[in-house]
Design a protein that fits this description.
This protein has helices at about 15-35, 50-55, 110-120; strands spanning about 5, 10-15, 40-45, 65-75, 80-90, 100-105, 125-135, 145-150, 155-160, 175. It is of the alpha/beta class. Helix 1 (about 15-35) packs across helix 2. The mean pLDDT is about 90.
Length: about 180
């Protein structure tokens, strides 16, 4: 589909799923190479990262790799609230382990900084960050993103796990808000 409508907003196609899938495979290969011999815990950030986690883990061949999830929220509508809320916490013991945070979107960096601080208090060997999408111009923190799939401008996007007030996560493609066609 070239256009979709979610609630009161129209979105136009930005990236097709095959482009996204190729970048995820590339990052999976990089992770396999760099973390060979580790027993990493992949930590998916719900709800948005569910597609990224599923797609990426298909390419991970590291023996002993595990997956878990946390749920945090910092968005309302089209913009970040600036406040991170822990909704579901981490239950695994990560002492001495490599943890790879899998995030659907990194924009301001607030959520990732919050998560890294929380994780570092649990004494992991190292904490790495993997992002499906990231917005370099929106970053407000000096944050290292170890595994980057696709850089975006600072536009609001939906699809491939990302939503607009609960809608749009199911689309395999990525769509950008089309300001010229929205209803008031």
């Amino acid at each position: 589909m070239k256009r979709i409508k979610l609630h009161d907003r129209c979105f136009r196609l930005m990236l097709e799923a095959d482009v996204i899938d190729r970048e995820i495979e590339r990052v999976g290969t990089q992770i396999n190479r760099e973390l060979a011999g580790e027993r990493p815990l992949f930590l998916g950030v719900l709800n948005g990262a569910f597609m990224f986690v599923a797609d990426l883990l298909k390419h991970i061949t590291i023996e002993g790799a595990e997956i878990s999830f946390v749920k945090i929220a910092s968005y309302a509508g089209l913009s970040s609230t600036g406040k991170v809320q822990d909704l579901i916490g981490l239950r695994e013991d990560i002492t001495g382990r490599t943890v790879v945070i899998l995030e659907d979107m990194i924009d301001s960096g607030e959520s990732i900084m919050h998560m890294k601080k929380m994780l570092e208090e649990k004494h992991p060997k190292q904490v790495k960050v993997a992002a499906l999408f990231y917005k370099p111009k929106a970053l407000k923190y000096d944050l290292t993103i170890d595994y980057k799939c696709i850089a975006l401008e600072n536009d609001f996007v939906v699809g491939h796990g990302l939503d607009y007030d609960g809608l749009g996560r199911n689309y395999p493609d990525l769509y950008v808000v089309d300001e010229g066609t929205n209803e008031n």
